[in-house]
Amino acid sequence: MKNLLTFNRKTVVNSIGLILFLILPFLTKSFEQEYLISFFSMILIYGLAAASLDLILGFGGMISLGHAVFMGIGGYSVGVLAFHKYESSSIFGFDGTENALITWGVAILIAGVFGLLTGAVSLRTKGMSFIMITLAFAQMGYYFFVSLSKYGGSDGLSLYNRNELLGLDLGDDVTFYYICLAILVLFLLIAHRVVNSHFGKVITASRQNEQRVQVLGVASYRYKLAIYTFAAAVAGLAGALMTNQNEFASPELMHWTKSGELMVMVLLGGMGTLFGPVLGAAILLLMEYFLAMYTEHWMVVLGPFLIIVVLFAKNGLYGLLVGSKDKNV
Amino acid sequence: MLLFIEQLFNGLQLGVMLFLMSAGLTLVFGIMQVINLAHGSFYMIGAFVAATVTLHSGSFLLGMVAGLSVAGIIGMIVEMTILRQLYNRNHLDQVLATFGLIFFFNELTRIIWGRQPLFMDIPSWLDGTVEIFAGIEYPLYRLAIIFVGFIVALFLYLLFSRTRLGMQIRAGATNRDIVAALGVNIKLLYTLVFGLGVMLAALAGVMAGPILAVEVGMGESILILTFVVIIIGGIGSVKGAFAGALLVGMVDTLGRAYLPTILSLLLSSELGETLSAPIASMSIYMMMALILAFKPNGLFPIQSRLDS
């Protein structure tokens, strides 16, 4: 917390970012571009997912190529509960609901449990195997929902309207935007405390030299599994928000290219910076948005752009903004 | 029973395709320590080039030669220009850069060939069925795929165990610095190994052409299965790739064919109906998790400085 209050370049950058996000709805209104607000909500939601990935990727050094599956699970939690509400049926003895407090909670819970189970297996491996096994588990989730014909299969699941949250009108794009922003800021504050705690230090130390951590008598596996589960749960919440944003849950949400995009966001913004991935999400989505206006074949530009970023830009854009010295918060 | 034997052959055929994909990739992983997500792109390129050449020339063999050469050349260019920069980088950089390559190749294919899938005919001399056992007919083309797969496996076995090049490749997988110090041109060796892997992937793509649709994204769906194979077999092990490929091919095919029936007997009818297809599609991933729980480095782990 102390770090946040000291006046330095990073505080300035973060404050400007926060203020910008706070006034964006007013800007879009004064420029009469209100349709853009859902696009900005999308940036916040992807930012949340990318920042959660940063916890395991940037701080923990665990290269997970399957993070989107947790978003998908969160998204389907909301979708399936709404589906049963419309049908007035029950699932495993529970009635369907559109109450966000329940659906988002369920999304966090199920994504977290799936993260715990798959993490327990995946973290037994290292290096390349870890990358491939997280990818394989994500594809498992993808094919599970693709063949789950009761909930739409590959066509996905549509919602009639967004969830209800304490009497707020989530159907209003601006309200929904501010809720996403509040959740993102809350997460960043919590995550900031986590990575600077004893717990977070163990995670960072395991990335740098796991053997030494273990020799010191710390069971690093449990710490890594805990942060993996936490990140999965947060990604689940991001997925729940995404389904609300689109009023649609689809297996595409957990396609492995989505996991790749989340990784790209983390790298573009700067690994191990928490705030960077939010910036990275903004850059990637804006790039897609503007490239798509000029050509439908925008991926042919984005691909080489990625390669160039990887080969030449080491610290991401956030690293450029705040100076790369104090990279790890 | 007849159906079961046919399914066994289908599993074998899928396994052989997966072996062609994973043999090259596991070498790239094991020897160069590079994680290459773009391997599926070469599978796709091989299929597209072969389909086009076959369509215009009428000769499947000519299409195959064209597909393999074009993919091989593109592969070696990619190795020399991009992958070479990544050998000393961490895995994350490799993942992201090759992810960018997939974007590029997929979109380029879409620009050149459009969004409609291409269709390839089975060459007339491989059309029809043969009787393998009394009363069991099996498509000749699929048998040919199985045959080619075993020939390639034999070729790789002889290459690795009987030739100097194979010895250098094996040595390179164990310790590349020592091999380089002994005067082997390691750069050239890497390019050759990569080219070999790419051509095997393209071969799989060409042979898949007549039985699957040739479309953008075809590489990614088989790539994930290939990863499962490599994890199960052990990174860097061609023998492991062979065993893993056949195992995955069998379990996936038989799982899809019989698990729904078995599950619907075990579960209540409503739940069984909803869950049987999804669970069948998950069978290989569960097998992978099970194997890794006991053998984290796969069935045939390679002893190297991989984890150091």
Low-confidence stretches of chain B: none
**Structural class label of chain A:** mainly alpha
Helix content of chain B: over 70%
**Count of domains of chain B:** 1
Strand order of the largest sheet of chain A: 1-2
Helical residue percent band of chain A:
over 70%
- What would the principal axes of the Cα set say about the shape of chain A? globular
Q: What is the radius of gyration of chain A computed over CA atoms, rounded to a whole number of angstroms?
A: 19 Å
CATH topology of chain B: ABC transporter involved in vitamin B12 uptake, BtuC
Please describe what this structure looks like:
The complex is a heterodimer of chains A (329) and B (308). Chain A has 329 residues and is mainly α. Chain A contains 13 helices and four strands. Chain A has helices at residues 2-5, 9-30, 36-59, 68-87, 100-122, 127-146, 173-196, 198-215, 220-246, 256-269, 275-294, 299-312, 316-322; strands at residues 90-91, 94-95, 157-158, 248-249. In chain A, a hairpin with a 2-residue loop joins strand 1 (90-91) and strand 2 (94-95). In chain A, helix 5 (100-122) packs antiparallel against helix 9, helix 7 packs across helix 8 and helix 10 packs parallel to helix 13. Chain A starts with a helix and ends in a 7-residue tail after the last helix. Chain B is an all-alpha fold and 308 residues long. Chain B has one domain (2-123, 132-307): ABC transporter involved in vitamin B12 uptake, BtuC (Orthogonal Bundle). Chain B has twelve helices and two strands. Chain B has a two-stranded antiparallel ribbon with strand order 1-2. In chain B, a hairpin with a 2-residue loop joins strand 1 (129-133) and strand 2 (136-139). In chain B, helix 1 (2-32) runs antiparallel to helix 8, helix 3 (60-86) packs across helix 8 and helix 5 (140-162) packs across helix 6 (164-174). The radius of gyration of chain B is 20 Å and the shape is globular. At the A-B interface, helix 6, helix 10 and helix 12 of A face helix 4, helix 9, helix 11 and helix 12 of B.
